[in-house]
Specification:
By secondary structure, the chain is mainly alpha-helical. It has a domain at 10-146. Helix content is 48%, strand content 7%. The strands form two sheets. A two-stranded antiparallel sheet has the order 1-2. The longest helix has 22 residues, at 62-83. It is globular and about 55 Å long. 30% of the residues are buried.
Length: 196
């Protein structure tokens, strides 16, 4: 598997482009589409399998797993804030604190080749995988593409998608799936006279 391959997307939605594909795969590891909602990182071993598939050293311990999940969920909170066009200062502060713990162990190496710039992890272990996620998010924020990373707001979803629409108006991971579910739920609530 390519390190930057985000995997299949709900409803055939186009994946995040380029290196953002890694970040999308990282953020969506909370939910395995083929196992109907099971967390891909339920154990250090399953997290290790995810790392190995992306070319990282697959030997995380429980502390590595806890830090990875903490970073994943904090970045997903920021992607949900992107959905509503707002900021989440508490989540930004937490990402900065996690980066302060990860960076001294993994570090990022600037690369100017390939007609642009990127940050690559200095090491290939579990900390390097987190450093890469942080580096991709940092550059996406600097380039203005981070705001296109959105978490589906449906209560039973949360899938992080890349909003390819011209005006960044995408609402759902898939209109056919979560968009229709939400519209149906709102319609049924209105018919019952219950608040939506």
């Amino acid at each position: 598997m390519d390190r930057f391959d985000p995997g299949p997307q709900p409803g055939g939605r186009a994946p995040a482009p380029g290196r953002l594909g890694y970040l999308q795969a990282f953020l969506n590891s909370f939910w395995d589409l083929e196992r109907h909602g099971a967390d891909l990182w339920a154990t250090p071993g399953s997290y290790g399998a995810w790392l190995a598939a992306r070319g990282f050293d697959p030997t995380p311990d429980s502390e590595d797993l806890a830090t990875a999940i903490e970073l994943r969920e904090t970045l997903r909170a920021l992607a949900l804030a992107n959905h509503d066009g707002r900021s989440d200062p508490a989540a930004i502060g937490l990402v900065d604190r996690i980066a302060g713990r990860v960076a001294p162990h993994a570090g990022l190496v600037p690369r100017l080749g390939d007609g642009g710039g990127r940050l690559d992890p200095a090491e290939n272990g579990p900390q390097g995988a987190l450093a890469l996620a942080l580096g991709v998010a940092l550059l996406a924020r600097a380039e203005g593409t981070w705001r296109r990373m959105k978490a589906c707001p449906h209560a039973r979803c949360g899938w992080v998608f890349y909003d390819h629409s011209r005006n960044r108006s995408g609402q759902w991971c898939s209109m056919r799936i979560c968009g229709n579910r939400t519209k149906g739920e709102l319609f049924r609530a209105r018919r019952r006279g219950a608040p939506a």
